[in-house]
Amino acid sequence: xxxxxxxxxxxxxxxxxxxxxxxxxxxxxxxxxxxxxxxxxxxxxxxxxxxxxxxxxxxxxxxxxxxxxxxxxxxxxxxxxxxxxxxxxxxxxxxxxxxxxxxxxxxxxxxxxxxxxxxxxxxxxxxxxxxxxxxxxxxxxxxxxxxxxxxxxxxxxxxxxxxxxxxxxxxxxxxxxxxxxxxxxxxxxxxxxxxxxxxxxxxxxxxxxxxxxxxxxxxxxxxxxxxxxxxxxxxxxxxxxxxxxxxxxxxxxxxxxxxxxxxxxxxxxxxxxxxxxxxxxxxxxxxxxxxxxxxxxxxxxxxxxxxxxxxxxxxxxxxxxxxxxxxxxxxxxxxxxxxxxxxxxxxxxxxxxxxxxxxxxxxxxxxxxxxxxxxxxxxxxxxxxxxx
Length: 388
Fold this sequence. Notes:
CATH architecture of the largest domain: 2-Layer Sandwich
EC number: 2.7.7.12
Radius of gyration: 21 Å
CATH superfamily of the largest domain: HIT-like
Largest sheet: 12 strands, antiparallel
Distance between the termini: 38 Å
Keywords: Carbohydrate metabolism, Galactose metabolism, Metal-binding, Nucleotidyltransferase, Transferase, Zinc
Domain Galactose-1-phosphate uridyl transferase C-terminal: 254-381
GO biological process, one term: galactose catabolic process via UDP-galactose, Leloir pathway
CATH class of the largest domain: Alpha Beta
Helix content: 10-25%
Shape: globular
Number of domains: 2
Number of helices: 7
Organism: Microbacterium saccharophilum
Mean pLDDT: 94
Structural class: alpha+beta
Number of strands: 19
Order of helices and strands: EEEEEEEEHEEHEEHHEEEHEEEEHH
Low-confidence stretches: none
């Protein structure tokens, strides 16, 4: 198999970044652990791939103003393939996967994206965006039958070449490499034209809708500020610019704190919606991963692993969850919206899940099944038994 030697850039903590491209022009970036055992050469992707799909189209819901991306190409994405055909494992003679070489951490453009596959100005073989948004004011305008091309970017973040696991099963060193990748991709995606918000997240477990068992997450780069963040910005306007600092101090003085370090505090929020819900806040204001200091990144790696392993220690089987890293929008709220993790799970007992039925799904009116203080007590006990 032919090889190439992608140019290496050293990031924080000794992580090496090696960008290259897949056979259809999609970007692939290797992030090598410090003291990695991998050499500098990477196999060239020699697959004969179909052309990249046309960029999806967004439709506006005039009742809410929300934009809904209609991405039909996602119907063709892999669905729980056998281990020998894992599309996120390194390529082999019998598995023409998405990543040509053995890797530590790898990030690549999604083959079946909800947004993209790229902006018109991007390099590579991506199709042109036929009718892109014309700025925030254009997207905020309400009208019947309004559509725009779903410009943006969707990336897959592979935490490990192993075929099973999650972020929580990684080593502290590997977790630190992923954090460096999140910071690097946040900065790069935020700089793309037309991007308004960048969202790293991990879906874990079939109960959440995961279609691959391989340990991985995703990053979405949206052409708008998401509805959840729009509501947050309104809450900040109605209360105070330092709302997140007030929340942090309120929770630190209360009974729901799970972990507290020099730079981060994890807690069950006062008005938790889900049976399992954990928020994690940095102690100083930072808008996104790219703004974190080296010390904050260093502490986050083991602290986050302890949280995730504590969640898994609650029951005899792994817990499904969504780990959502909320970041400030690219162009608004930079001085008020603080980077924060919101981890949620529908698991309300060993063999029971919370389903969103009439009140929650239809009206957005939530009913909590577990008192947040009780959830915090159970989580603290589970975390105390965790080792790294």
